[in-house]
Amino acid sequence: MKLAGRMERLGTESAFEVLAKAKALEASGREIVHLEIGEPDFDTPAHVAAAAQQAIDKGHTHYVPAPGIPELRTAVTDFLERTGRLSASPDRVLVTPGAKPIMFFTIMALCEEGDEVLYPDPGFPMYASIASFAGATPVPVPLREENGFVIDPEELAALVTPRTKLLILNSPHNPCGSASTPEQLAAIAEIAIRNDLVVLSDEVYWALRYDGDHHSVLDLDGMAERTILLDGWSKTFAMTGWRLGFGVFPQPLVEPITRLVINSVSCTSAFSQHAAIAALEGPWDDVDTMLAAFRERREVIVSGLNAVPGVSCVRPGGAFYAFPNITELGQSAATLADRLLEEAGVACLPGTAFGGYGEGHLRFSYANSVENIQRALSAFEDLTS
């Protein structure tokens, strides 16, 4: 069976490949510490699960409007305004099965052959994959350790061409854990406005920050009409398996993106949208508990990695990833990640799973217990000593 040529341009997400290898090793009797997958190790808050069950009991098991039920779209805008992030009307909100469709639909609606998409490297691998699939040219914007793994506006400006259509931002950042600053974002906004760029701001980790307020390009004048906000429930509320995401779009994009929703998934499951409302409007205690645990684990893994000879690790400002520099160990990121899994029983990802500029680094998810993180650190040091 001959596949369409576009399939050669579609990549994958290495975390799931490594997870499959790790699970196979576990099935053979090996003990594995899972630091590869980007998912909170906490249960969905009980009141959220209860809201879903109540919705099922009430018969919310049928088709709903493609953009999302009105109650949820309103709850999203109320939540964004209440948390000081964005003031927008509910008709600009589109709800999707997970946040990835927001990326996919945005790029498919805006980009075609000859267009260029600027994206962070290291960065979430789907950015480049979807851009390439759409026929556009993905252009990496290097995130350098000496800059704290944030975009250098001067370097960004030099990469903009007359063909640049879309700029993708991500803060707090996967895989580096870095967070944008107001000064950096002001410079990026000026570049976007001057060059008439559309911006996709991936803020799915916005709640998982440790060192102050969240900053977004949407804070700046003139950016709301050219920026898509991407967010969801997976990371903030430990709801990865619920597949719930949302985008807030400039008005001209709402109808085209809605058509893409209708043509692909029809709508997002009805009962899960009622659970999403409960998450946004309910108590924040579970989120605070999770964030406190991640903050403790951050200190454990960062200090532990910095104690390993030949390894250095910048303290992340958000998300739940450590991105240590392993250059002095004299092994490629892919080689060391494979050895950690096969020989030490520690599942992690090479920095190159997130782009070429990730070479010389590994990504560890510290969404695991302190005890398991310490086990992994000990195994890492034993392997590399």
From TrEMBL:
Q: Name one Pfam family in it.
A: Aminotran_1_2
Q: Can you tell me which family this protein belongs to? A: Belongs to the class-I pyridoxal-phosphate-dependent aminotransferase family.
An annotated Gene Ontology molecular function: pyridoxal phosphate binding
GO-annotated biological processes: amino acid metabolic process
Which cofactors does the annotated protein need, by name? pyridoxal 5'-phosphate
Key words of the record: Aminotransferase, Pyridoxal phosphate, Transferase
Membrane as a keyword of this entry, yes or no, is no
The record's SUPFAM superfamilies line, in alphabetical order, gives: PLP-dependent transferases
Keyword Transferase listed: yes
Instruction: Kindly give the InterPro entries that the UniProt entry links to this protein.
Output: Aminotransferase_I/II_large, AspAT/PAT-like, PyrdxlP-dep_Trfase, PyrdxlP-dep_Trfase_major, PyrdxlP-dep_Trfase_small
Q: What is this protein called?
A: Pyridoxal phosphate-dependent aminotransferase
CDD domains linked: AAT_like
Domain (Aminotransferase class I/classII large) spans: 31-379
